[in-house]
Amino acid sequence: MSSPGFSWITPVVFVRDLVASLRYYERILGFDLKWQWSEQNAFAETVRPTAACVYRGDYGLFLNQKNPFEGAGLVCLNVRTAGELDSLYREFSASGAKIVEPPQDRPVWGMRDMVIQDPDGNTFRIGLPLEGPKKLA
Fold first, then answer.
1. Most-buried pick from 29, 33, 66, 84 (CB within 10 A)?
2. Residue 4, Cα to own-chain centre: how many angstroms?
3. What's the total number of domains in the chain?
4. Which whole number is the average pLDDT over 109-125?
5. Residue 102 counted as domain residue
6. What is the pLDDT of residues 72-103, one digit of tens each?
7. H/E element holding 28?
8. Any idea what DSSP says for residue 123?
9. What's the CATH code of the domain at 108?
């Protein structure tokens, strides 16, 4: 009997200023706003939001102004091809994203990836397997 899998994952990224972070995710990283919410008045457009959901393609992130944990987050995002990774690198370079590490092969863990950060120090490792998915024995 096999274990059930996950159909998707939605990471929560904690930010200091949600409005500023939404501008960054939309304008610099190319995400689209799906919804925003405020603890003061759920989903009201006239109050400053404290949580939001942004999407790029089929995948989304929750941005939350309250952080119950210490430190910034780390999210690993996968692409399908090296061409997609290179395209994202060119796009993010041109838009002014903070690129911590450009695309490179990492044979130690079998990935080709790059690392970017948002203004709050949340880190995103974006990549793909070098030889396809590896299974644990």
1. 29
2. 24
3. 1
4. 89
5. yes
6. 778 888 888 899 999 999 999 999 999 999 99
7. none
8. E
9. 3.10.180.10
Neighbouring CB atoms inside 10 A of 15's CB total 26
Task: With CA atoms as reference, report the closest residue to 73 among 129, 25, 13.
Answer: 13
Beta carbons of 118 and 21 less than 8 angstroms apart: yes
Residue 104 belongs to what domain range? 12-129
pTM of the model: 0.68
The pLDDT of residue 134 is 46
User: Does residue 60 sit within a domain?
Assistant: yes
Q: What is the DSSP string of 68-116?
A: SSSS--EEEEE-S-HHHHHHHHHHHHHHT-EEEEEEEEETTTTEEEEEE
Q: Which two tokens stand for residue 106?
A: 């990492």
Whether residue 5 lies inside any domain: the answer is no
Q: How far is C-alpha 19 from the chain's CA centre?
A: 17
Q: Does 137 map to a domain? A: no
Q: Which residues, other chains included, contact 53 with Cβ-Cβ below 8 Å and sequence gap of 6+?
A: 10, 33, 34, 35, 36, 60, 61, 62, 63
Mean pLDDT, residues 22-47: 82
Higher pLDDT: 73 or 24? It is 24
